[in-house]
């Protein structure tokens, strides 16, 4: 099996923190590393790294080696000099949508007679183009064309994502290759600290600051606390600033009403993340659309209540545990935050009772579905 690690390698070289898509790709790399070789697309060439080079690059991407950027650079350079190894006839695993918006990807797949297995995370650029970068919808059309035209098999993260593609296929007259739905797992977070990182009650939002995450609604809720003369709980925003979020940034940097009550953390380590989640009054997840929603799974796995937008994919993954709210209903979010600010509030206490019955879906359960599916794909 070949694993296309081009996206992971590129983001490592650029010093970027892993996104949710990257975390899925890293889980696949961790699971299949002993049975796979690395494919890197670099400067127009497809390079299959040898056994030893793949081992080193996998370790670098998984954060297991010193000087990971240097390791990747050296091994890719050597592959260029050696002109790489033939990848003809291999099963190819692409878990990050990487390169699929280039029509040349399909050409190379056919040229090398590869058997691609693609992981589809979402159709958000097509179903909700207003929350994507300009022209991202055209790129996603091309990604889906590559998947549908060349894919031996597809893996979906949720039934909701599968249904979106079924609707797409019906609209554009394509056909769906063999596929499977395998809900995402999470890597267990470290044991959280026994003490909260803040003395006051606080709420957490977790994820990149971008329009579809709906940070704007929550910041206006916090402004409303100030307008009403109430002392708000703290709000901790964990995530990097993304794109087209100028209004959110303006509020964070210039609103006197938010000063002192909102804490922005572009990144934190896993122990800190576990501690922030474990002692929070709740995770706030008011997104307009999600392909899956890993922060929700991480929160409930820590026993943390969740106030979430009422999305089908959330109900699919954690059922009726969270309290669901309309992502446009500011007064409802204000009332919920006010209630959950009190540790013993009946609404919060009731959700804590529901949380006791949650059984975490881990990566082992995910790959218990995917492993036999890939065996069937190889036989096709």
From TrEMBL:
Residues 200-319 form the Glycosyl transferase family domain. One of its GO terms (molecular function) is glycosyltransferase activity. The keyword Iron does not apply. Keywords: Transferase. The keyword Transferase applies. InterPro entries: Glyco_trans_1. It comes from the Bacteria. This is Glycosyl transferase family 1.
